[in-house]
Write a structure and sequence with these properties.
By secondary structure, the chain is α+β, with helices and mostly antiparallel strands. It folds into two domains: 75 residues, Beta-grasp domain (Ubiquitin-like (UB roll), Roll), CATH 3.10.20.30; 72 residues, [2Fe-2S]-binding domain (DNA polymerase, domain 1). Helices cover 32% and strands 13% of the residues. It is built from five helices and five strands, in the order ββαβββαααα. Helix 2 packs across helix 5. It is globular. The structure holds FE2/S2 (inorganic) cluster (2 copies). The site of one FE2/S2 (inorganic) cluster (FES) has 12 residues, from loops.
Length: 173
């Protein structure tokens, strides 16, 4: 089946079996290996991508469902930069260890911070409830997201966009 979609901002035409999992098409056919397979059953969120701006578990989505829609993967979060502010914070704060959950968390957290820029730490936990992490215990992930959130808020107030001031090891000056 030939289908068209917009993938990471570029119009693409694919010739694929319509029932193949979107995750497999992304990883195997298109070399977009950022999205990970954790459970393969829609439980862990490691495979999260955006379809028309909504986070979805790509392990559960037949590629045909993405036809004529806009798909964004973790590879597109940072545009030209190596990492987005959310991704950089996750690395800096130790919010990533084995890394399997990290792409899905980065995708979902990016959406969460855009939609609810004032979300409390508790609310951030709720917004990321569909993303499981076996390594970090979540605290460092929330620390990272809170720091990225604070940096964005400071930038919006015209106080610069410096990140890292909320790091547990940061010293006040
Ligand atoms: S691999 Fe898709 S939800 Fe776990
Ligand atoms: S860093 Fe290993 S599952 Fe989250």
């Amino acid at each position: 089946m030939k289908l068209r979609l917009t993938l990471n901002g570029t119009a693409r035409q694919l010739d694929v079996h319509p029932m193949r999992r979107l995750l497999d098409v992304l990883r195997a056919d298109l070399a977009l290996t950022g999205s990970k397979e954790g459970c393969g059953e829609g439980e862990c969120g490691a495979c999260t991508v955006l379809i028309d701006g909504e986070p979805v578990n790509s392990c559960l989505v037949p590629v045909a469902q993405a036809a004529d829609h806009e798909v964004v993967t973790v590879e597109h979060l940072a545009d030209e930069a190596l990492m987005s502010d959310v991704q950089a914070a996750l690395v800096e704060f130790g919010g990533t260890q084995c890394g399997i959950c990290t792409p899905g968390i980065a995708v979902c957290a990016t959406v969460a911070l855009e939609r609810e820029p004032d979300a409390s730490r508790e609310r951030l936990r709720e917004l990321l409830a569909g993303n499981l992490c076996r390594c970090t215990g979540y605290q460092l992930i929330i620390d990272a997201l809170a720091d990225a959130q604070a940096a964005r808020a400071a930038a919006a107030r015209g106080h610069g966009a410096e990140r890292g001031t909320g790091h547990p090891g940061a010293t006040a000056s």
